[in-house]
Amino acid sequence: MTLNAAVAAVTDRIIERSKPTRDAYLALIRHERDSGIERPMLGCANLAHGYAGTDEDRDAMKPGTAMNIGIVTAYNDMLSAHAPYYRYPEQMKIWAREAGATAQVAGGVPAMCDGVTQGYPGMELSLFSRDTIAMSTGIALSHGMFEGAALLGICDKIVPGLLMGALRFGHLPMILIPAGPMRTGIPNKEKARVRELYAEGLATRDELLEAEIAAYHGKGTCTFYGTANSNQMMMEVMGLHMPGAAFVNPGTKLRQELTRAAVHQLTKIGWKGDDYRPLGECVDEKAIVNAAIGLLATGGSTNHLIHLPAIAACAGIVIDWEDFDRLSSAVPLIARVYPNGSADVNGFEDAGGMPFVIRELIDAGLMHRDIRTVAGNDLADYGKTATLDGEALSWVDPGESKDDTILRPASAPFSAEGGFRILAGNLGRSCIKVSAVERDRWTIEAPARVFSTQQEVQDAFKAGELDRDVVVVVRFQGPRANGMPELHKLTPPLGVLQNRGFRVALVTDGRMSGASGKVPCAIHSSPEALGGGPLGKVRDGDIIRVSAETGELVALVDPAEWAAREFATAPAPAMGTGRELFSIMRDRANEAERGGSAMLAAMGW
């Protein structure tokens, strides 16, 4: 199938725009491959320190001829998604030996749970945890002890952070290894119903807690299609997993064999063999475009409009929101997974999952097939379902969708266009996810009510002050103001207002997460309010138009009055819960469209 013209044009646009930085990046990783630190050049004392922690593998490591795999792990047992990684390193060492290689845990990275910190001060550390993870990955791989790496991580900031750090060591072959989603708990609609009842005071805290525990009940990734599961989707369409690895449940034989295969594959793609596949060459412009297309085709997380530009930048590639917007007009929405539908990711996997999505998009000319993956040179390998034939791992055609309320072919999509829009106007540049928003709510025009914190919104809701058509403006939530926390706790009250028949929208320079759903939310507004962004001029009662139909984000205020207005004063930076430790990151962070990163800003992005 010929590549879609819009996809080809956007890819060419990115390649041309990125040429100077991509060339510089490729020169860097080739220099690191040829002249950087590697195990054979380390001094004897250095090597002794590197070997001292191992007994069984020391003699195998000494000649320096076989690959030594560095494991970078986000294991902790406070995160359900990362708890399964507990025994992965010891298993992976065995599987490495099977292939004549060795493996060591190179380092751990922090992995916080946005679900735990949501709505509380710790959430203000969340976005910058991604930079911290990237730098921690850099530290882990800096020893020159490894000829390849396995990256163990799943959740919101962890996969982007791992990949950002790993790309600065892009001369090494690397594979990302997921652990899979937990099994299905109570239906997501039931969980959302209880949340809204609690927001209205019609359910008790005990009832809410029981519902939440029934939803988040075991080891594995949360089952809604938020940022964590969007991460796994992107790694599949970029070819950085073993094919079909994204959504296989933990604790299964298939999951174990996919991880074993990943370790064995790493040993085959090192620089001393005939099939060298460095990470920095696998993650090229086509792979980045595939990730954006995957997000649009599946209604993935809005957080990746921040994360994907940041990942791309670490490989010398420049992608912006205009690229997403242009792709969205060409890429159909072929999946509905909660919060954009009723099914969770287990239902999505049962219906055909990522193999079906990838096959459909390739066959429709909507995804780059000719990318260099960790498993081969054809993304069509990822359009097959992983299965066990007895004890042996094999891949088979996914067939037709097993449930067309969850997955549809590209020829008969849920929507002819993707789930994202870019908005612009005198309130700056923003993005909106509309895949779960009813079409009659794609345009909201109503008076503004302005807030500076989530708590202020909740207090006003409880006092009945928002029982009307309203555009809720929550400002001073950008990277430099307070670390750009997700405002997910606003979902239940805004949903209740909409259920009451009011026309409601949210406008913010903060994030709303991959769990954003039925209420139209103009998020990531740039430039942010702190430092002179236009949200700082909005006043209560201003008529605001939020329109995914026309691409507008506008305060309908007389231009002369708007120009004369002074900016509101930002609240003082909050202290406590470690937030003061990240002040240097807040001070240096760039805009959301460029990644919302202090680290990238320091690198000149």
TrEMBL record:
Extract one GO BP annotation from the record. D-gluconate metabolic process
Q: Give residue ranges for domain Dihydroxy-acid/6-phosphogluconate dehydratase N-terminal.
A: 68-381
Membrane: is it a keyword of this entry?
no
Keywords carried by this UniProt record: 4Fe-4S, Carbohydrate metabolism, Gluconate utilization, Iron, Iron-sulfur, Lyase, Metal-binding
List the molecular function annotations (GO) for this entry. Answer: 4 iron, 4 sulfur cluster binding; metal ion binding; phosphogluconate dehydratase activity
- Required co-factor? [4Fe-4S] cluster
From the record, give the transmembrane residue ranges.
none
* Record's cofactor remark: Binds 1 [4Fe-4S] cluster.
Q: Where do the Dihydroxy-acid/6-phosphogluconate dehydratase C-terminal domain residues begin and end?
A: 406-595
> Record-annotated residues binding [4Fe-4S] cluster?
155, 222
Q: Can you name this protein?
A: Phosphogluconate dehydratase
Provide the species name: Sphingomonas alpina
What gene makes this protein? edd
